[in-house]
Amino acid sequence: MSSPGSVESAVADPKLVEERREQIVKAATKLFSEQGYYLTTIQDIAREAGISVGLIYQYFKDKDDVLFLTLKLVLETYEKVIPAAIEGAEHPLERLCLAIGAYCRVVDRLRDATVLTYRSTKSLRADRRTFIKEGETRTNRMLEGCLRAAIAAGHVRPINDSLLVYQYVLYSHAWALKQWALRGRYSLEDYVEEGIKLLVEPFLTEKGRAAMARLKRKRRVA
Amino acid sequence: MSSPGSVESAVADPKLVEERREQIVKAATKLFSEQGYYLTTIQDIAREAGISVGLIYQYFKDKDDVLFLTLKLVLETYEKVIPAAIEGAEHPLERLCLAIGAYCRVVDRLRDATVLTYRSTKSLRADRRTFIKEGETRTNRMLEGCLRAAIAAGHVRPINDSLLVYQYVLYSHAWALKQWALRGRYSLEDYVEEGIKLLVEPFLTEKGRAAMARLKRKRRVA
Amino acid sequence: MSSPGSVESAVADPKLVEERREQIVKAATKLFSEQGYYLTTIQDIAREAGISVGLIYQYFKDKDDVLFLTLKLVLETYEKVIPAAIEGAEHPLERLCLAIGAYCRVVDRLRDATVLTYRSTKSLRADRRTFIKEGETRTNRMLEGCLRAAIAAGHVRPINDSLLVYQYVLYSHAWALKQWALRGRYSLEDYVEEGIKLLVEPFLTEKGRAAMARLKRKRRVA
Amino acid sequence: MSSPGSVESAVADPKLVEERREQIVKAATKLFSEQGYYLTTIQDIAREAGISVGLIYQYFKDKDDVLFLTLKLVLETYEKVIPAAIEGAEHPLERLCLAIGAYCRVVDRLRDATVLTYRSTKSLRADRRTFIKEGETRTNRMLEGCLRAAIAAGHVRPINDSLLVYQYVLYSHAWALKQWALRGRYSLEDYVEEGIKLLVEPFLTEKGRAAMARLKRKRRVA
DNA sequence: AATGAATGAGTGTTCATTCAT
DNA sequence: TATGAATGAACACTCATTCAT
């Protein structure tokens, strides 16, 4: 009946649908992030969004639907932000570092929503859970592309790229998941820098090290 | 009234208390892991444990209490298994590798419960949440001890140890969190080995590399 | 947060709130009176009122709240009926007798609810219990006002007015509390008349006796 | 099967039965009086009595049974104390005053249990409720006997004796029911004295007044 | 005679969802 | 489109009662 990635609405006007859904998801994201999925009621969401309970059901089939769109939006943000960050950069190493930095920054911005991703994905219907995981996989692949390009260009020595990419992802997510331990000890920018020292630099080739040095100098000037 | 770490019981006999709690927590761990905290009912737990609903309330104050002990047990297992694994080993590098391997293996054994840790810690009362996080911190410190010893002994070059330890932890947890992606591609033992290649070897000193080679040869013989 | 005398509602429209609460309290009064507070379930009340369980919780915070409004209504009825009964009468003795008669009659009308007052006040939260007792005190004071006026006017001889007022109250309540013994032996009107013979006439002065005789004649004519 | 006034026990030794029941009823009276019947659990009673839950069921059929014996004991105390108080006194007026005083005093002693009588009689099974009411009626009849004797002897003028007796009863009970209002304003002894002024003296004949004066003088000497 | 662990029916309460307006 | 009053299934939790020891 309904494909896992789309969400039906009883309302015709697509512009209104867009607008209302955004309004509702914004409220839901805030509340789900603060209190979790099960402790957030539809009435809470309606109140936070400044609309009536019934209206939510004009734009979403059920509560699961709201969660789905909320998580989908987080994933989509990831997928949008990272390409945007590396766009314009040519050098493979620069692209890799920019991608990692962008990931950390978007996690910082969507801190609570990222945690929500870990907490609540399992609350979704099975097919939608898969859909969300595929979104994550797509994001990973973007990082993987950057890493492979750097290997192909001879800046990074051959290595288990897919596992290393997971480390990039986990490192970024950790900024949200372990904020209670990390914040206060690092600024976001320091955290990114440390990440690169830990998860990129040790794998650079001679050529890569030289390139990295040049990049750092350039960045310092800018 | 009640300290966050203890759980009151209406039953006097400590042996029975121990036994029943274990029985209940075992059932709860299974169900919480499969369906999450909120979708698991007390009835479910009772049925799974083969006892009556009322009996659960003789050994736990409320549902939160059951979750707490469940999570506490996971953390305590971590804290027990890792020292046991490195006991007997003398060499700092060996101790570090054993610790990482032990962590991955205990995560494998408590796979669902580890995921539960990420999903449900926030469902706990605030003071208990803190208590659980302190347990995690203690585990981290054990790894940190190993890493620092290896640095002090000149096998690992000076590095941001606390962040690297986080990578060890995340790497281990990922085996549970991302099992949908990792299993099928790696066996547990391969995964451990890859982890060491990715998160230990790049940071070895000359001396460390030599020591590591010797350790590997020894392991292959055994 | 909530003052003891008010009851919050999730519904906005005050007219509907009024109507629904009346409907619910009416059902609750019947059931509480027949079976007592603890044997009456919210399900029972919903069924009796012809509404759903959930709806009760839109108009009352909890079961205690329903009991409170039920008892409050009884007390308020007392406070309304007695002034209405003596309004228009000028003569202090007439006012006193009318007040006593009105009290007996309202107890007769709210027979079961009056018994409920004795049975269930202690089931209320402490602050609300006090609130209810203050309502009773206010009613007593109205009777006390009548009695004192009659003493001041020289119709009743000086006497322990506050204790005598308690006797009036108890005499009225007894009509409900001891109905199993009194009904069948007295009609309500006879009971009122006997009460006046027992608790008013013995304390009349010469002047009071004369006035009382005149009042009785007048009443007989009307 | 079981007559309403008796309570079966699984234990043979009548002395032990007597002793245990007393122990249990004592605990129950305290708790029922403080918290009411429904808020008191069998576990509470067992704890208060210092015995096990199971043991209560060796001496009582069910919880209703415990309440019944508790109330029965109160009524029996009334029935025992009043005759004892008037025993030895010859003069009808003196007997009447002693009876009223004794009633007030026993109510004072069993203050909470007397309130319990009002709150919880309706919680009993129907036949036992009747049984308890008959006990009350018996007590009333003792007072009625005193009053009638005083009338017959020409000390009290002919009057609606049964209703006046109710006033005596209510007056005594009020000491428990309205203790929140009465205590602090009267001592028990003053309260008794005021009662006699209000509910006996106004109905005395000339002869009665003379006799009462003599009695008071005598009492003052003693 | 005495214990107290075990039971499970029954309670108050919540909240996703519907639908008349 | 939008509202929010109304529904009722489902849940956590309690406690009178039983029974193996």
Give a structural overview:
The structure is a homotetramer of 222-residue chains. With 222 residues, chain A is mainly α. Chain A has 2 domains: 9-61, Homeodomain-like (Arc Repressor Mutant, subunit A); 67-221, Tetracycline Repressor, domain 2 (Orthogonal Bundle), CATH 1.10.357.10. Chain A is 74% helix and 0% strand. The first copy, chain A, has 11 helices and no strands. Chain A has helices at 14-35, 42-49, 53-59, 63-86, 92-109, 111-120, 126-152, 161-177, 179-182, 188-199, 206-221. The longest helix of chain A is centred in the middle third of the chain and has 27 residues, at 126-152. The N and C termini of chain A lie far apart (53 Å). The model of chain A has no long low-confidence stretch (mean pLDDT 93). Chains in contact: A-B, C-D. Chains A and B meet through helix 6, helix 8, helix 9 and helix 10 of A and helix 6, helix 8, helix 9 and helix 10 of B. Chain B binds a DNA duplex (21 and 21 nucleotides) through helix 2 and helix 3.
